[in-house]
Design brief:
This protein is α/β, with parallel strands linked by helices. It is built from 12 helices and 22 strands. The structure holds pyridoxal-5'-phosphate (PLP).
Amino acid sequence: MTLPGHPFLSLHDRHLQLEGHALDALARQFGTPLYVYSRNAMRAQVRSYEAALAGRPHLLCYAMKANSSLAVLQTFAEAGCGFDIVSGGELQRVLAAGGQPGRVVFSGVGKTRDEMRLALDAGVRCFNVESEAELLVLADVASAAGRRAPVSLRVNPDVDAGTHPYISTGLKGNKFGIAHERALAVYAQARALPGVEVVGIDCHIGSQITSASPYLDALDRLLDLVDALASEGIELQHIDLGGGLGITYTDEEPPSPEALVRQMLERIDARGHGHREVLLEPGRSLVGNAGVLLAEVLYLKPGEDKSFCIVDAAMNDLMRPAMYQAWMRIEPCHRHDGTPRTWDVVGPVCESGDWLGRDRRLVVQPGDVLAVLSAGAYGMTMASNYNTRPRAAEVMVDGDRVHLIRERETVPQLLAGERLIG
Ligand SMILES: *Cc1c(COP(=O)(O)O)cnc(C)c1O
């Protein structure tokens, strides 16, 4: 029996399994806290995007800030993906994982000159430029290096993605992108700069978007600009529609990647732009439901008002609940009989905001392993060492194979770069 929204997670003989591997056994083998990912779940999501894109020029750029572990990048590179990066460090990860720089788009509002130079030297596919000031600096850096930087302007289409304010990026008040009404002027400016070559247009309106309509609104706004640019003699090679497709955490019912992309391509074709290359930058929808975070129950603290289930994973391992009040499903890895009780599942970090789930009906006892589902995206990449907690280990399952893809961090590693005075 698979879990709704999690086709690679199943309940077998009361044990929760990922691609057929019992999660409590993996927790015992590798220790906790532990991230476990299904490689075939990632591949299946790529296939869903690719099914809609087949037969047309396109590039699926995995937005690697969602999960940038090398073996994850390797999985996407092998599946034919490019990458959407937001720092020079991420570019170095792509190269270390065997990805091709010619399939990389470089996003972000605060690229430094050093990062621009690194990306020019590596030969990235495109810079997604987010402001006029950045455009001028990029032109300068490229000219000094005797190059022309391929650019796309990230336009802020001013549409409401209907998502959490912290992960909404396409509204006027956001720091991202160039205002829609400024775009034509900035393109004209870009065309006149010798250090840059205009190749595309992009937008990214937010994250965890669960319906197609904001995408279609943004797309229409973008195509209006593409038409206006063409009438001024500026022909764009590609249209990059960003990422942001949501996943099922609880009862959300987002369209499948294939269904969403089909609707967008229909609109592109209907408006006569079917010949242009389409780029997409999905992050969460490629990895979110491919991963779980495993934690062991340390102590139970039943109380009159609140009962606490204290586990060995915390906000430093998984920030989403503390940062966005995100609801993430929590399942015991081995179900046993008993009367469920309502627990707040919390970590050991000294903050009241350190919780993974509130008011959860669970049958638990110390020593049990709990799985936080949908933890493949914005989990490990947002982990910190707060409270001097080494970061978790990561495991990737792939059919009958199990790979340790990141060793558990150690305290000596945390202290290695520090110096006493004297
Ligand atoms: C974060 C980000 C994405 C990916 O967003 P998801 O919601 O994870 O799909 C894509 N493009 C840009 C520019 C981003 O910043």
